[in-house]
Write a structure and sequence with these properties.
Oligomer: single chain
Order of helices and strands: HEEEEEEEHEH
Helix content: 25-40%
Shape: elongated
Strand order of the largest sheet: 2-4-5-8-6
C-alpha cells in the first residue's frame, strides 16, 4: 500500500524533511540562546542601576580603559568644573523617543581631586540648520558642580558605529577617550559619565538620556517555541501527505477494478 514511498518523488520529499528537522531544532536553540542572553543582559543592567553610587575615578583608569560589563550602567558620581573649551558634539544620535536625529553634547569635567578629567554626556540637542553647523547647546554650568550618572564604555568603530575623518570642527562620530586625549592633550579617564543629575541644578540643559530598558525580554522565546512546533509538524505533515496519497491510490485502484468488472465478456 505504501510502496509509492520508494518512488523518486517521495524519497526526495522525505530527504528534505529529514534535513529540515535538525535545521529547525538548531534555529529554535539559537533563539533560546538569544533569549537567555537578553535576560542576562537585563539582569546585569538592573543590578548595575540599583547598586549604590561610587566615584567615577575609583572605577576607571587611563584613556581607552575597557569598562567591564558588570560596571557598565553602574551609578557613579563626580565633582569638579566643566571644561567648555573642549566641549564637542556627537553626530547622528536620537532623542528619547528615538524619532528625531540630533547630537549628544559631550563636555569634559576637570575632577576636583586632580586625577584628571572625564567626559560627560550632558544629553541630546536638536540639529542646527545644516550638518556642518554646530548646534545650539545650553552652556555648561560654571563653578564647582557635583554630578550623578551612569558609567559607560568608550564607543569604538568595532561597536557598529562608523567613524570618519573630515567632520566639521568639534563634531565627532564616537565618544572615545583615546580619540579625545589625542585631540586635546588632556588627561582623561577611560569610559564616560552619562549624566542623570547635576547639583546645583542648571537653569537649562540638554535633554537627559533615559536609562536603558531592562524589562523587555523580546520575542526570542516565542520564536524558539515556534521553530520547535514547526519541527514537530514536519513528520506529521509527511505522514498526512502519505496517508492522503495512499487513500487516493487505493480509490483509483478500486475504481479501475470496478471498471474492469463492468466490461461485458466477449
Amino acid at each position: 500500500m505504501y510502496r509509492f514511498l520508494l518512488t523518486r518523488q517521495w524519497l526526495i520529499t522525505m530527504l528534505i524533511a529529514l534535513l529540515l528537522i535538525p535545521a529547525t531544532i538548531k534555529l529554535g536553540f539559537w533563539q533560546l540562546h538569544r533569549h537567555e542572553a537578553r535576560v542576562a543582559r537585563n539582569e546585569l543592567i538592573g543590578k548595575a542601576l540599583t547598586a549604590g553610587p561610587v566615584p567615577f575615578d575609583t572605577l576607571s583608569a587611563a584613556p581607552g580603559f575597557a569598562v567591564p560589563k558588570d560596571l557598565t550602567w553602574r551609578t557613579v558620581t563626580a565633582a569638579g568644573q566643566y571644561d567648555p573649551a573642549h566641549e564637542f558634539v556627537v553626530r547622528k544620535r536620537t532623542d528619547s523617543s528615538g524619532d528625531t536625529i540630533g547630537y549628544f553634547v559631550i563636555t569634559p569635567l576637570k575632577l576636583a581631586d586632580g586625577k584628571g578629567s572625564i567626559l560627560v554626556n550632558r544629553g541630546w540637542v536638536a540639529s542646527g540648520n545644516g550638518a556642518t553647523e554646530y548646534p545650539a547647546v545650553p552652556a555648561a554650568p560654571t563653578g564647582e558642580v557635583s554630578l550623578t550618572g551612569r558609567m559607560r564604555a568608550d564607543e569604538t568603530s568595532g561597536s557598529g558605529i562608523k567613524d570618519r575623518a573630515g567632520l566639521p570642527d568639534r563634531q565627532f562620530n564616537l565618544i572615545n577617550t583615546e580619540q579625545q586625549a589625542k585631540e586635546t592633550g588632556a588627561t582623561l579617564l577611560g569610559g564616560y559619565l552619562e549624566l542623570t543629575a547635576t547639583t546645583p541644578a542648571p537653569a537649562d540643559q540638554p535633554e537627559l538620556i533615559p536609562e536603558p530598558n531592562h524589562s523587555d525580554i523580546g520575542p526570542h522565546m516565542a520564536y524558539a517555541i515556534q521553530w520547535w512546533l514547526f519541527t514537530a509538524m514536519i513528520p506529521v505533515g509527511v505522514w498526512v501527505l502519505a496517508r492522503r496519497e495512499a487513500k487516493d491510490r487505493a480509490k483509483q485502484a478500486a475504481e479501475a477494478e470496478v471498471a474492469v468488472e463492468a466490461v461485458p465478456a466477449a
